[in-house]
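USER: Study each token:
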Amino acid sequence: MQAPEFPENEAQRMSALRSTDMLFTPSEERFDRITRLASQLLGTPIALVSLVADKCQWFKSVKGLDAIETPREISFCGHAILGEEAFVIEDAALDQRFADNPLVTGAPNIRFYAGHPLRTEDGSRVGTLCVIDRTPRKLTHEQLVSLRDLAALAEAELQRGQLSETQRELVRERDDLKRKASIDGLTRLWNRAAITELIVAELGRAKRGVPTCIAMVDADHFKKVNDTHGHQAGDAVLVELAARIRRALREFDAVGRYGGEEFIAVLSNCKIDDAKLVCERIRQFVVNEKIATPAGMLEASVSIGLAACNSNNEDLERVVGAADAALYRAKDKGRNRVEVDD
């Protein structure tokens, strides 16, 4: 196996990557839609937005893969960032650089790889948009153009930045290990500790006059899914619920996994009437389409409790308690609905 070389500008490259504030942060819908399109247009089961750190590659967005990172020394993307154009391996099993790579000989059993480098504003190649297949294949000229075009979209998003002020502050205050420890490994959202810290920070902004709302989202009848179809099906439901919540929220909103099947969204600079529309969009995104699981296509719905951060809900316990109380009213009224704190 041939480990990827380090670029000559590695120090500058890593500085540029860190300046994006995206390394070791949750998945975002703006990147997820690109990996979905890449998988569909190029006909591959796996598509990734990968950020190549000093010791690992971090998957900012994943389609068709359970992993959240892999070591840089065995990565294909580590090779891809060394060039300007797409790096293509048509059959990894026949390529001496990769034939004995553990990502080829074991899961995810890579045979085909195509990755286009992503650059920051200074031109540093900090990651890739890549597609992967478990069988050998070739890309047509049109498919290579599609990969390049989609990579340009991912690159634009990478350069644009979109995390909220409070999320950027949380990221900048933490080293790599603490950032990783802030992500829920299953749903790729903020975990309970991180989203709680973000709520506290947003409460501070709310006291300065920034309208902020907290939405508590709970999967309806989730215990029945686990009991009837098994935990793998339950995990698939949670992963897809997280993706649909991200899709329904505004790009700069924060969302985290608060409990087993419970999520919290922090809607900053959002009045209660607008927040209710966002929550209704979440509900519709979930209920309108079945979820693919190992046990087949399953129906799902969520109940949502919404509370505004105001003089009555001025601390963490009060605002989360108000959202939780509204959530229980939603459940008592038949589930699959949005209720607002009185």
User: Anything to note?
Assistant: The chain has two domains: 10-161, 167-340.
